[in-house]
Amino acid sequence: MSVRISYEVDQGAPQFWVGGVAAQYKLNKAVEIGASYVNDQNPIAKQGLTSVNATVKPDDKTTVIVEAAQMNKQLRDGSAARIEATRVDGKLESRLYAVRTSEFFDNQSAILPKGRMEAGLRASYKLTEQVRLDAEALHTEDLVTGAARDGVQLGAGYAFKNGVRVEGGVRHSKETAAEGTTLVQPDLTSVRAKVSSQIPGLPQASVSLEAEQDIKDSGRRMVALGGDSRLAGGSRLYGRHELISSLGSNYALNEGQERNATVFGMDSEYMKDGRAFSEYRARGSAIGSKEAEAAMGLRNLWTIADGVRASTSFERVRVLSGPATNESIAAAGAIDITRNPLWRGNARLEVRHGEDSDAVLNTLGLAYKLTKEFTFLGKNTYAANRSRTTDSKRVNELLQSGVAYRAPGTLGLNALAKYEFKLESDNGPADLKRAVHAVSVAGNWQPTTDTVFSGRYAGKLVRDRSSGLDTRGTAHLLAARVTHEIGRDWDVGAVGQVLFNGEGSGRQYGLGLEAGYQLQKNMWVSAGYNFLGFKERDLAGADATSKGVYLRLRMKFDERALEGMMNAFN
Asked: What are the residues facing 353 on neighbouring strands?
């Protein structure tokens, strides 16, 4: 079988460059890192996207993936982040994940739309060779409107020896409306069933039928039919058609928002370290709106020399019906250099062209080992977006540089001193021009194997010339944390924070407690509650400062895992 994908369009504009680069590098058996960058110089519309990723495998049962991306589109900057931890330990399989996209992260290839946050936990236990128990918890939130949904699901499945599998379960969810909105049916309790089977004579193909029904309202229901087939050479055909009384997810069945969706496509390996995909997407609703898109693209990895690896990717989304603004072309490229044991550098460029804007995203990174204990770390991220609608340009730039110290032994002091420069500008209707200089010093002191004291200072100087005004300000943050292990796999901690505004005239406090569980050696998941809290956009870093419940995933690396890692600022 052969697959060929081509696309040509003449937009009647001068010639321009489209380029991108991506790279993945395996530091050792436990750690792999990567980065990508795309830049589209189309004079009609420009766009950029930069991303970094890291995969950590502390053992053969556990995998942790961390990704971060930043884009510039329509003169607005957006960012996204994802963390996922999976573990397969005999009969038990589990997955913990969290994804967040900012209000202006408008990337059609992202797993979430812009301005969303989603976190969840899934677990499956194989009771016998034929019986499996499943559990899931999910939180999803619209960061723009404040609407949120929480849900839990319990289920069981039975696999027959002839390849047929039957599943059943119960689902409950509760929805919080956006400000100014009233929900008629904020709660849902439903029962669901699914039957899937291999196709006789085609062991690589399967079909499935799924249905769900609200136990209180017969009008709230969902029915879906899907199929999947794996072909020779690593290719895969897939498809799914869904009729659902829902807007957004299966946790939100709503009779007044009925819609249907169809997706089918093909993914194939057309060369070593190269894959091509083509996908058709269609959506419709009960009120008559219809959208259809065709997406196609390529992804490649390239080994240029020992210690030098690059990656490239390309994607084209063509609107067949619906808003033409959904059309886009994206390309990315990255390179990673690790030939010298004393230093490592990487670069990524990503460009995206949409019908109404163009964007570019670029990152540069460098790590240089000064001594056995000290390492210099530097990174610059530049994102720009030009909108044809408003004839304006938005630029976001973040420069980070610092020195990290790591104690030569297991116990002792580890520290990081860092300087950041952040620039935000928009000459369009937003009229934004803001610059921030920030410095911080953070350290961990471990006097014994079961106790860790942490401290952090951060300060900033801000100048904001947005909307014709010119203001200056300062702020300082002090934070302290203590963590103590209470057994082999559990620990407890307390954190206190103080934010000084201006010259110390105003103060805000943060105070919280947390408990953590060690999923695997040197990897913890922690849950905590801040009794006092505040919000600080520039100095908070990776700490949870807002009042309320929070979750965090912690990892501790040895010298081999840390060697050469480029993005250890946060």
From this structure: 358
Helix (H, G, I), strand (E, B) or coil at 466: helix
d(CA 47, CA 356): 10
Asked if pLDDT for residue 555 goes beyond 70, the answer is no
The pTM for the full model equals 0.55
User: How crowded is residue 79: how many other Cβ atoms within 10 Å of its Cβ?
Assistant: 19
Average pLDDT over residues 432-436: 92
Q: Can you tell me the distance from the alpha carbon of 453 to that of 412, in angstroms, rounded to the nearest whole number? A: 10
| Residue 249, pLDDT score | 46
Domain boundaries, the chain: 18-406, 407-570
Helices (H) and strands (E) in the chain, counts: 1, 31
- Bridge-partner residues for 390, per DSSP? none
String of DSSP letters for 107-138:
-TTSSS-TTEEEEEEEEEEE-SSSEEEEEEEE
Give the Cα separation of 319 and 325 in Å (integer): 8
Spatial CB neighbours of 186, under 8 Å, sequence gap ≥ 6: 174, 175, 176, 177
Q: Tokens 């890692």 map to which residue?
A: 565
The domain over range 18-406 is classified in CATH as 2.40.170? yes
Distance, in Å, from the CA atom of 127 to the CA atom of 129, rounded to the nearest integer, reads 7
Q: Give CATH superfamily name and number for 407-570.
A: Porin (2.40.160.10)
Place of tokens 């199929």: 227
